[in-house]
Amino acid sequence: xxxxxxxxxxTVGAIEDNCQLMLTCAEQLRAQQxxxxxxxxxxxxxxPPEDLLLRPACQQRVDQAMQRLLxxxxxxxLVFGLPGIRSGRRYNLAIAARDGQILAEYRKQTLxxxxxxxEHRYFATGDQAATFCQGGIRFALAICEDIWHDPPMQAMxxxxxxxxxxxxxxxxxxxxxxxxxxxxxxxxxxxHALYVNQVGGQDELVFDGGSFVVAKTGHLIxxxxxxxxTERTLALDAAGNPQSDTPLIAPPEPxxxxxxxxxxxxxxxxxxxxFQRVILGLxxxxxxxxxxxxxxxxxxxxxxQAILLPSRYTADISNQDATQQADISxxxxxxxxxxxxxxxxxxxxxxxxTGLPTDLTEENIQARCRGLIxxxxxxxxxxxxxxxxxxxxLAVGYATLYGDMNGGFAPLKDVPKQLVYAxxxxxxxxxxxxxxxxLERPPSAELRPDQQDSDSxxxxxxxxxxxxxxxxxxxxxxxxxxxxxxxATVQRITRLIDRNEYKRRQAAPGIKITRHAFxxxxxxxxxxxx
Length: 530
Hints:
The chain has helices at residues 15-31, 56-72, 150-153, 174-189, 254-272, 286-299, 316-329, 339-353, 360-381, 391-396, 417-430, 436-440, 460-472, 477-482, 487-499, 501-505, and strands at residues 2-7, 36-38, 77-86, 89-98, 101-107, 131-134, 137-143, 161-166, 192-197, 199-202, 205-208, 212-214, 220-223, 230-236, 242-243, 278-281, 304-308, 332-335, 384-386. By secondary structure, the chain is of the alpha/beta class. A seven-stranded mixed beta sheet has the order 5-4-3-2-1-14-15. A six-stranded mixed beta sheet has the order 6-7-8-9-12-13, with helices on one face. Strand 8 (161-166), helix 4 (174-189) and strand 9 (192-197) form a beta-alpha-beta unit. The longest helix has 22 residues, at 360-381. The mean pLDDT is 94.
């Protein structure tokens, strides 16, 4: 008997396209003498379908697609996820079907309602195990969150195999946690386990795939590559034991997998939303440099355009470094000085500003001139504007609303500043696309003479450590100070984080890579007296 993991990239809401993707995959596997294929959780709708599930037409289209799957590919067992209405209640289902017959139907028992998940909004809770037999082998079904809770896993004790369907988003370190959990369960219940995960980007989430198989001994015997659609076939002997002579793929090292997540998330956001090209402002700084590298790796140089927008405060070396990177990357670029636009706005505002001291307002005018120009190019050409800010800046509001925050997608939105540097250095190891001087120069917004980020912010090593504790670990100010940080610095930074929720609420979506990202995962009130 041969079984297969189908690690595919569905598109949320594209029910007919997802169905055809499954049919094509199943047909190819059947031609290879595969007897059973397992697809991810909610693969027919893509994950997460969110309030699409509340539209009656969504379920109607799902039911029609399911009938195609039941009837069009005979001779192979399909195991797949979909939403389904049973006795007036909607469930997150796993179906096993063959030759038009449903062999088993499982209703997800553990509905996650934390972080990016809100399944209680959409689904009722199942309470029964589901198993089926094929070739004398008993298979049990589970869906995603179920593996982290003991009651649903009791079915493993009655089965030879657990088939676990997942739509598990990426964050750093998560792949190892999944594998360790299935290894523990397989050994504890003496049951082989197959884990199949969705791959691809969906708004702020990115799914890494990384599907795998664990023998009942607890040994990992197969692993799929990350961020790639793939099928992995495995032979079973007469007793149902997996046979594999293929070397185990090593997991990517942390910087590599994080960079791949950013590339995959950017590519899928652009393409799944119907864009063919992107533009970005290239300043000669580290953030726009890394964003350009990600965009080129995701889409190809022909699909990327860089715009240099120098001001009276832009250093010559910034222009040189930006031009050098654009040349190395092979992208089209243009330099559009903003001085005339800035002077025009200053002239318009002069009657109201006369006699008032120069302050942050004049800096923001420059940033907003850049934002206006970039959005105009985006509107005229139909290219998606990528904004280049990072998580550290977004946390404390070190960004201009309607200026450098302008854009349709933010690849670095969840990437702290220190990680920006680490990823840039890692990317340069394979081919040097970011000029070395960009990595070495002190970061600066270049909105006033001799400006450096350190004029307004603590060292990024300190800033990122405070942000991680306050945002990702929900530590209190007192706890952070007790960790050895300067009290005044902690109080100032946490106040900035709290005060700038209004900016983050208006920020472009970006790829979640940490355990706790701004956006759909961290939902704080703007008006907040806590």
